[in-house]
Amino acid sequence: MPSLTLSFQNNSTIADDSVYIGFWGSTLNATLNGSAMAADTWYALDTITSLTLGATTSGRIYVGYGIDPATTDPNSSVLAGNTDRFDKFELTFDGTSYGVADLTAIDFWSIPMSLSTQLKGQAVGHLDGVKAGASVSGIYTALSQLSQPVRSTTTAKGIVVAFASQGTPLPAGVQTALTQPASGVVSNAQGGFVRVIGPNSYPPFGDPATDAYPGLPFTPYDTFAGYFTDLIHTFGPGTASPAPGFAKLGNGKIAHLQGRFAGNPQGSGTACQAQSYDLWAHIDARCNLTLIGKTNLLSHVSIAIGHWDLLNPASCYGANPTFSLDGGAPQTPQNDVFAWILGDFFAGLNIGAIGSGKKVGQEAVGDMASSDWFEKLPPQGLLFDKLWGTGVTDHWNTWAQALNPLSDAYNFAFAERFSAPLISLDPARVDTLTLTLLDASVTPS
């Protein structure tokens, strides 16, 4: 049976007896110091002499600094009052060539670390938590500036107005919390750094039509609302078709989603089978989104996302919206062709491809099929601000833009469609995975 040795290199300057390791996830088959490793349990690094992962391991391995192992729960919310410093990397080691690991900074950034793999002592692959030429303090500065000053004020005021116009005005305290959110930077009582919360972690914006209040704390980050407003103004209902400078977009049509889903062998039903797809994304004047088209196995597909569900952080930053399929009940994405199609749209939104007039050859990027975005744009360095003209500052995921040149950490959902944030754990090529803890000091530069 395949196995993987997990080794540790502590360059953090924090003593091994104050560094903790634990596994949280769906399955665990691991041997720690010759005995079965317990899930959901912290182990001090100085007590670990050997750790071997067996096949079927899938989940997150956490690192904690100076925590109380009896009380620190890494699954607790990082949004309010959580000043335990911990971070994680993700892995799937199923004994096949599909096993991978990744550093992840989608939800938050806290502990700088790197991953590397070896086979019989020889280096195979690596993911650098801090790329050559970058620094821990530089990453901190870049990320902390994204929520200081607050970037979500316009959206917050829009939410307040929307609830008032429905006859259900929000309480004064909620209005204040929306318009004056805290930055994403979290410190402990002694002023020490804990984490920078990522924009994906914040709760939904609520829905005035159903009197569902906004979740708190409210995001201090850009909400993509300005991006969608621009898309509606340029390509929404009643605009020229095609829009000036474009060959295909306009009168509600904002993107062409075309490609191939490789299939999900663990799933069942037509939606989990390998298939090609071809849909158009349409937006209306109220910022409701509909993806309409077909696959080679499904003659009609219609995916609808309402205004507030579309703007939610879990949608724009996490590609995990609540949607309706062919007019059915609300649902969230599963590992099937519909999730893959949604991934195309939100990945395109995050890199700034949707609606971009930047020309590649004779074709505007916004006119391209989505599969061409991920094939043609990264090799040319055409991502984020490079796809928009001077004066446009937020028509992309600014968190991902800040991290992308500085770290190999996974920086938004479906980032693998334009970058390489995964490291292979194919047991035919790898026998050891090494976690290197980098300097823990986070000092603004």
Characteristics:
24 strands, 445 residues, alpha+beta, globular, seven-stranded mixed β-sheet, single chain, six-stranded antiparallel β-sheet
Written overview of the protein:
The protein is an alpha+beta fold and 445 residues long. It has helices at 136-144, 153-165, 172-179, 225-235, 307-311, 313-316, 337-351, 370-376, 398-403, and strands spanning 3-10, 19-27, 30-32, 35-36, 42-44, 51-54, 57-65, 85-93, 100-103, 108-109, 113-119, 122-127, 185-187, 193-197, 253-261, 275-283, 289-295, 301-305, 323-325, 330-331, 359-360, 363-364, 423-424, 432-437. Strands 4-3-6-1-24-11-12 form a 7-stranded mixed sheet, with no helix packed on it. It has a 6-stranded antiparallel sheet with strand order 5-2-7-8-9-23, with no helix packed on it. Strands 15-16-17-18-19-20 form a 6-stranded antiparallel sheet. Strand 3 (30-32) and strand 4 (35-36) form a beta hairpin. The mean pLDDT is 96.
Summed up, what is this model?
The chain is of the alpha+beta class. The chain contains 9 helices and 24 strands.
Topology:
Layout: E1 3-10, E2 19-27, E3 30-32, E4 35-36, E5 42-44, E6 51-54, E7 57-65, E8 85-93, E9 100-103, E10 108-109, E11 113-119, E12 122-127, H1 136-144, H2 153-165, H3 172-179, E13 185-187, E14 193-197, H4 225-235, E15 253-261, E16 275-283, E17 289-295, E18 301-305, H5 307-311, H6 313-316, E19 323-325, E20 330-331, H7 337-351, E21 359-360, E22 363-364, H8 370-376, H9 398-403, E23 423-424, E24 432-437
Parallel strand pairs: 1-24
Antiparallel strand pairs: 1-6, 2-5, 2-7, 3-4, 3-6, 7-8, 8-9, 9-23, 10-14, 11-12, 11-24, 13-14, 15-16, 16-17, 17-18, 18-19, 19-20, 21-22
